[in-house]
Structures are given as C-alpha cells and as structure tokens.
Specification:
Organism: Flammeovirga agarivorans
Strand content: 5-15%
Helix content: 40-55%
Family: Belongs to the short-chain dehydrogenases/reductases (SDR) family.
CATH architecture: 3-Layer(aba) Sandwich
Bound molecules: hexanoyl-coenzyme A, NADP nicotinamide-adenine-dinucleotide phosphate
Protein name: SDR family oxidoreductase
Pfam families: adh_short_C2
Shape: elongated
Order of helices and strands: EHEHEHEHEHHEHHHEHH
GO molecular function: 2,4-dienoyl-CoA reductase (NADPH) activity
Number of helices: 11
Strand order of the largest sheet: 3-2-1-4-5-6-7
Amino acid sequence: MLRDNALEGNHFVVTGGATGLGKSMTKYFLELGANVTICSRKEDKLLAAADELEEQTGKRPFYVVCDVRKYDQVENVIKEATAKHGKITGLLNNAAGNFISPTERLSHKAFDTIVDIVLKGSYYFTLAMGKHWIANGIKGVMLNIVTTYASTGSGYVVPSASAKAGVLAMTRSLAVEWAKYGIRSNAIAPGPFPTKGAWDRLFPENLRAQFDEAGKVPIGRVGEHQELANLAAYLMSDFSAYMNGEVVTIDGGEWLKGAGEFNHLDAIPSPLWDDIAKAIKTNTKAK
Ligand code: HXC
Ligand code: NAP
C-alpha cells in the first residue's frame, strides 16, 4: 500500500511478533524498510520467524525473549533493541492471550493469566517505552491491537474483553497526556483474521463446523493479513501524523451487523419482501 522504503529510518518493537498477525505486520514493516525488533516468550518461535522473515524480505528482524508480564524483561527489550538498531521510533503492543470459556468455569488464575498478558503486558511496555522516550527527548508512536469487543464487550471471552477495554482506555488517555512529548497513541480493532493462535483457542475444530465466522461478516469473508498490515503500517508511519487517540475498526462490518436492530432481516428471502410490503401498506392504510 505504501511506497517502497516508506518506513526507512524507523525502528519498531513488535510484541508477539513471531506468530500470526504480529509476524504479518512485522513482514510488511521490514518490506517497507523499517528495522524491527520482535519479542515473545518462546525463543524457538522467535528464531524460526527471524529466519523466515529474513528469507522473505531480505531483512532480518532482531529478537529478544521477553514475557511482557515481567517489567525487567520489558526494560531489557528496550535496552537490547536500542543497542542493536538505535533509537526505537514505534511500539506495537500485539501480544495477547485468550480462550473461550463460560466465565463461571474460570479459576481466578485463569482470569489473571489473560488480564496479565493483555492489560499488564501492554501497560508495562507502554510505561517503559514512554519513560524512555520522554527521558531521552525521543518522539514515537504507539499502536495497540485491541478487538471490536473492547468497546461492545463479549460473553465467553470476558477476561480478554475486560483487558482489551483497559488497553483502549489507556490508548485514548495517553493520546492526550503524552502528545506534548510528541508521542501518539492509536489502536486497531480487528474482526476475525485467521491465525493458528486465535483459531485453536477461539474456534476449535468441534465448533468450526457449527459456527461459520465468514457468515457473520457483511462482506462475506474473514480478513486477510495484508489488509491489517496495510493499516498498521499507515498508523505506525508519519503519514498518520494527525491521527491520535483513534481506534480503527477493520472487520468487514461484523460488529455493526450484530448491533443493528433489524440486520437479522438479511435472512428474509427476496420474494417475501413483496408480501411484507403489501401487509405493511394494508395495515397502515387501514389506520
Ligand atoms: C479454562 C484455562 C484454559 C481453558 C488455560 N486455563 N486454558 N481455563 N479453559 N481453555 C487456565 C489454567 O487452568 C490455569 O489456571 C490458567 O488458565 C493459566 O494457564 P497456563 O496454561 O498455566 O498459562 P500460560 O502458560 O501462561 O498460557 C497462557 C494461555 C495460553 C493464554 C492459557 O493459551 C497462551 O499461551 N496463549 C498465547 C496465545 C494466544 O492466546 N493467542 C490468541 C490471541 S487471539 P489454574 O487455576 O488451573 O492454575 C485474540 C483474538 C480475539 O485475542 C478476537 C478474535 C475475533
Ligand atoms: P497469536 O499468533 O497467538 O499471537 C499472540 C502472540 O502473543 C504470540 O506470538 C505469543 O508468543 C505472544 N504472547 C503471548 N503471551 C505472551 C507473553 N506473556 N509475553 C510475550 N508474548 C506473549 O494470535 P494472533 O491472532 O496473531 O493475535 C495477535 C493480536 O491480534 C492479539 O492482540 C489479538 O488479541 C489480536 N486480535 C486477533 C484477532 C484474530 O482474529 N486473529 C482478532 C482481533 C484481535 P509466545 O507464545 O511465544 O509468547
């Protein structure tokens, strides 16, 4: 979407950048000329992703092992990434944990686990990065991956919904507070984009047959990774310099379909509309 080398001179940190959407966004950032540092818990995945991305793009991402729930490890990523590629210009909070479950079946530890990865992980990275940027007079951009249900809420993923709502509130709050330091904060709310991580935990095989994700989306399909990467590249770049505190939904219209009072009328076959129109006209004339 952006011109060649549009991100040259940038250095982004992407949490959870070795798999799924984080890897796809990292790939596009590299293709556009940015240096990227990826981090997550599992070194084998980081190494495999670095090899794969180098082969695909000709540019190797730097990686650092980090559990985003550990503040010292978060600070270490910033230190090591800066030593490797110099000034960090953008932070993409993408790491997450999630699974579907009736809430009453969750242990308090299960709830903690999701909230700690999603909310604590995001605010630890945001805080450490913000302190570093402010102390060193560096301007930067923060982008947080939330979900559409960060705004609407959703049953069966209540820890994730609670945590993502917190991340969204943080995004909007810091967009105002830290703008004076030249730090922008935005968020993306994706709808369904198939990844192994999400599908294994949210749409396991025995559910997939019963619930068609694409069928819930007005556009009639799930998202393509490049579509999300295009948006992320724009929001991480200076082309979006006047966007701050925004959450951009990219879901093919999925959440609005669930929200609109009469959207379920999609199910009415076209010929039946003649009968319905007739009935309505008769009723209203009778009055
Ligand atoms: C109930 C569960 C559970 C399940 C784990 N737990 N899975 N409870 N149902 N399916 C409980 C455990 O029993 C334990 O509680 C507690 O949660 C912690 O589990 P651990 O396995 O020890 O945690 P950990 O090793 O830290 O792994 C975290 C994880 C795992 C979240 C459970 O799935 C993970 O690593 N996920 C990372 C990737 C991921 O989730 N990606 C999907 C993001 S998708 P007790 O009480 O027994 O100790 C996403 C998309 C949203 O966010 C929108 C889509 C449209
Ligand atoms: P994914 O591949 O499972 O990505 C999650 C990443 O987070 C993994 O790379 C994982 O790596 C990392 N991670 C988990 N816990 C961590 C921790 N404690 N410390 C550091 N890293 C950790 O799933 P995805 O679908 O690409 O999700 C990416 C983002 O998109 C998430 O924020 C998710 O909520 C959001 N999202 C996805 C969809 C979708 O349809 N796919 C829709 C809406 C929003 P390790 O296991 O190696 O740590």
